[in-house]
Please model this.
Amino acid sequence: MRLSRLYIDIPLSVGQEIVLPKESAHYLLNVLRLRVGTSITLFNGEGGEYIAHLITATKKMAQLQIIEYKEIERESFLQLTLVQAISRPEHINYTLQKSVELGVQHIVPVIAERSPPFDKNKISKREQHWQKIIISACEQSGRNRLPHLHNIQPLTNWLNKPQQGIRIVLSPNGKKFLSHNIFPLSQRETKGNSITVLIGAEGGLTENEIQQATKTGYLDIRLGARILRTETAAVTMLAICQALWGDLHSENP
Model:
């Protein structure tokens, strides 16, 4: 039976007793309906996971005791970065959740020309909301390390920063199709290397933005004859990269 997983943002050690924050206690006791004696998996984003027992449970308080540490890692050896133009909330929320499940290590939300307007005074609140989505996706997918959520920034700012590794921008008029032969790298040669994927918002990136990206080293790639929605494009690209060069490959080491 798979144990419920919970992210705790504190140092963890075997033998430690933890009184959970109210929100986490409510989730365990009232949503999952766990009872005293139940085991749960804890992780703090620093690698590995801990097995803990629920030792005290009241209406408003839950206390756990850590009994075992497991040095388990589920990170892909392919370093994936998603540069996602901010889209409508329901779309970018979905994109963030699924990208975490697919093993992305860095998420860079950028403001593109076709990004919908939003209140810049609420940037911090939006980033906190996205961080909660990332944590929840890690809890669900079994990841023990949190992807790094970069600060919101204009796309031009990101493109002007020094970047390494393979860089891809999706374009309906892209000059190349994504395939195993597009990069002179076998799966094992790609191990430890990085791939950055740039995805537009609803309506895609403008031609000017695509040109800016290609001038900084991005390859303009197209995926078949159909136009994908922004959230579909991101998930598709990350899944293809993991299948061709990452840990979804049949020759997974």
Observations:
- The chain is about 30% helix and 25% strand.
- The mean pLDDT is 88.
- Residues 79-245 form a domain with the Alpha/beta knot fold (CATH 3.40.1280.10).
